[in-house]
Amino acid sequence: DSETRYGFLMNDAICIVGGGQAGLSIASKLRKLGDQRPITIISSELYPPYQRPPLSKKYLLGDTKKERLFFRPLDWYQGNNVSLKLGATVKSINRENKTVQLETGEIFAYQKLALTTGSNAIKLPKKLGGLLSGVYSIKTLNDVDNIKHEFMAGKTMLVIGGGYIGLEAAATANKLGLNVVLVEKENRILNRVAAVATADYFRNLHLSKGVQILESTSLVNLIEKGGRLAGARLSSGETISVDFVVCGIGIRPNDDLAEKAELKVSNGINVNEYCQTSDKDIVAAGDCASFLYKDKLIRLESVQNAIDQGEIAAETIFGNKVSYQPYPWFWSDQFETKLQIAGLNIGFNHTIVRKGRRPGGQSVWYYRDQSLIAVDAMNDGSTYLVVSRLLKMQTNVTPEQADNINFDLKSLLK
């Protein structure tokens, strides 16, 4: 019977490919909207949807149990008619027949399809020693489970890449008593994502804890001894002995499946303001989705974006027209410092550093000419809260106001 050929009514099924924050956000929002159609979440991971930010911090430190990472207990899925198909990889999408086929050959039909395929850590190339035992990246729960045994006091860890992923891993390892060497090929850490002042703050923080940071230094190759990693040759001419390596050189959107299905992709799956792809019955959300922001195609790799875009995608699936308004915010925890970022610093041409009320607290304000576009707040939660509200309200703070420590920012909220 073709009506029930794939185990459920063919004409009303919702299929979500990818079991991360965005995928769960779509499923739970649909149920909140009162959508009764059966939902299947297909995920290549072995675990139900879970939080990622604690992986490189609390989970790796052993402060959080695995079960605490899961967004919902298993009975939530059963009670809400959401089927989980775990450890399954989608091989192809047939847009004409409205089906997805798994690597196993199993086929799922859909009325509406959501792609929340996320992103993948960029691996160290084979020619540099990327396939050696002892080389890791930190992106999934499995990645962290595989690396946990290496984090023993006295070992030496080499971090490749001075972005937030690398710095967070360095801070966690240092806390556990490891010797940490971080190499960054650019002339400074956080080169692509933050201003000089923010980079200076975090460099000083890491150096004060004993992390060794080598900027303008790249990896020439890893050295093998007895089938395992033993050391690293650096562009400075130095050779260092290391026990293991964490590679934090960035992530790539998982858009291959969409590209094979001939959806529009451009460093991610192109979506409109309703999170629709170039096929009106397919939405995309999260790390894998590329959208227009102030005339630029961007992707936002953040928890907030995955939640917000997921909810907009759910509205679209439900039949509502709600457009996505990104209010970017990010955070990073390193040692006892909480970094909170409001806005997007793309295209800034000058910054102002403002001292925080608390010792060691400060904020870096990004301006495009006279317009405030973003703020990095380090241990300065009160400034972050005010600025994130002002950015949402599209209320400007002039450079003169930001530069005046006695100016009351809250007065602008009135």
In short:
By secondary structure, the chain is an alpha/beta fold. It is 23% helix and 29% strand.
What is this structure's SSE topology?
Blueprint: E1 14-17, H1 21-32, E2 39-43, H2 58-61, H3 74-79, E3 82-86, E4 90-94, E5 99-102, E6 107-109, E7 112-115, E8 119-121, E9 135-136, H4 141-147, E10 156-160, H5 164-175, E11 179-184, H6 196-209, E12 212-215, E13 219-225, E14 228-234, E15 239-241, E16 244-247, E17 251-253, H7 256-260, E18 269-270, E19 282-284, E20 289-293, E21 296-298, H8 303-318, E22 329-334, E23 337-343, E24 350-355, E25 362-368, E26 371-378, H9 381-393, H10 399-403
Parallel strand pairs: 1-2, 1-7, 2-3, 7-19, 9-16, 10-11, 10-16, 11-12, 18-20
Antiparallel strand pairs: 4-5, 5-6, 8-17, 13-14, 14-15, 20-21, 22-23, 23-26, 24-25, 25-26
Describe the fold and architecture:
With 414 residues, the chain is an alpha/beta fold. The protein is built from ten helices and 26 strands. It has helices spanning 21-32, 58-61, 74-79, 141-147, 164-175, 196-209, 256-260, 303-318, 381-393, 399-403, and strands at 14-17, 39-43, 82-86, 90-94, 99-102, 107-109, 112-115, 119-121, 135-136, 156-160, 179-184, 212-215, 219-225, 228-234, 239-241, 244-247, 251-253, 269-270, 282-284, 289-293, 296-298, 329-334, 337-343, 350-355, 362-368, 371-378. Strands 3-2-1-7-19 form a five-stranded parallel β-sheet. It has a five-stranded parallel β-sheet with strand order 9-16-10-11-12, covered by helices on one side. A five-stranded antiparallel β-sheet has the order 22-23-26-25-24. It is globular. It starts with 13 loop residues before the first strand and ends in an 11-residue tail after the last helix.
